[in-house]
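Title: Comparing notes on inverse folding

I've been comparing how different people in this forum approach sequence design from structure. To keep things fair, I'm posting one structure and asking everyone to reply with a full sequence. Here's the target:
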């Protein structure tokens, strides 16, 4: 069923609420993360000190990280280069190509990798279609770039339906 592909494995308030020790216990060795409204606001060019600290904690835990973003090369590289993060831009999520490229680049398996993002129709759907453990986070900003606004409307419809059917175990912020 299509809606099951939209259901994240986990839902947390932010990247800072992800239990890195639990990921390690679950044999997770790598993270594929979205950039815009997952790590920082879509219009913030650089990482915040909190995001830098979170990435350092992943590194200290021995986890590899690749940013997979639908945004353009200039935007993604400007964010990732100072942090020495691998990245894939213009990813066309939810298509498989970028997710598979990321696991190849990190030399890990899908089972050893978690996908983190703020959108059901790109991050969660793309990760779930390939069998990744997916974590949906609340968007960092309440505003979005032009192309994301349509997805947000569709997400609200899907999440409302899932909530009415008792498929979700979390409460969304209005």
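Reply #1:
Here's my take.
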């Amino acid at each position: 069923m299509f809606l099951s592909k939209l259901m994240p494995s986990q839902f947390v308030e932010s990247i800072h609420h992800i239990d890195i020790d639990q990921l390690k216990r679950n044999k997770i060795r790598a993270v594929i993360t979205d950039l815009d409204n997952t790590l920082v606001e879509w219009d913030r060019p650089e990482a915040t000190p909190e995001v830098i600290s979170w990435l350092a904690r992943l590194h200290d835990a021995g986890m590899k990280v690749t940013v997979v973003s639908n945004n353009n090369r200039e935007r993604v590289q400007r964010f990732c280069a100072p942090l020495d993060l691998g990245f894939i831009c213009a990813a066309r999520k939810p298509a498989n190509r970028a997710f598979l490229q990321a696991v190849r680049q990190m030399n890990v398996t899908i089972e050893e990798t978690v996908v983190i993002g703020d959108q059901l129709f790109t991050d969660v759907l793309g990760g779930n279609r390939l069998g990744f453990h997916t974590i949906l986070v609340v968007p960092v900003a309440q505003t979005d770039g032009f192309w994301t606004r349509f997805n947000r409307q569709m997400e609200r419809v899907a999440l409302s339906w899932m909530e009415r059917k008792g498929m979700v175990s979390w409460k969304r912020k209005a």
